[in-house]
Amino acid sequence: MHLKANGQFDDGANFNKETQCSKAKHLRILQCIYRVFRYILDLGIMLVAAIEGAKDKICQIEDVCCRQIFPNFQLKSESLHKIYSGGTKAAEVAWKERGNDLILQIERLTA
User: Fold this and answer.
1) What are the φ/ψ torsions at residue 2 (nearest 5 degrees)?
2) How far is residue 39 from each of residues 43, 46, 82, measured CA to CA in Å?
3) φ, ψ of residue 10 in degrees (nearest 5)
4) Which domain of life is it from (predicted)?
5) Can you name the residues that pair with 9 across neighbouring β-strands?
6) Within a 13 Å sphere around the CA of 28, how many CA atoms are in the beta-carbon half?
7) CA atoms of 42 and 40, how far apart (whole Å)
8) Which residues pair with residue 3 across a beta bridge?
């Protein structure tokens, strides 16, 4: 107990009320900060969803435009791919044959 200036004793009740009030203010501030962060997070999620939607629409538009502007491009591309892959396979076979011939020559020289 403390003696007040008016001569009455103080049991610290005012101090506890001030402490509780201060804690309540801090709690409200933290709740406000949480709401702000949650709002920003929700905005970020909506932004990402909007970007993904825009990318999908752009891909659809690009696909339609490419089909109209270059209708035979895919067919030509597939035929060129077949020709190229055939040439690649022939080069691989020739390379393996050349490697096998070199191995045989080395074996003959070492024997």
Assistant:
1) -120, 150
2) 6, 11, 54
3) -110, 130
4) Eukaryota
5) 3
6) 6
7) 5
8) 9
How far is Cα 91 from Cα 72, in angstroms, rounded to an integer?
28
16's tokens = 């506890």
Q: What is the chain's percent helix, strand, coil content, to nearest 5?
A: 85, 5, 10
Taking only the tens place, the pLDDT of each residue in 53-72 is: 899 888 888 888 777 777 66
Task: Report residue 92 CA to chain centroid gap.
Answer: 39
Give the per-residue pLDDT at 20.
Answer: 75
The residue whose two tokens read 């990318």 is 55
Q: Which residue has the tokens 């309540």?
A: 24
What is the torsional sign of CA 88, 89, 91, 92? Answer: positive
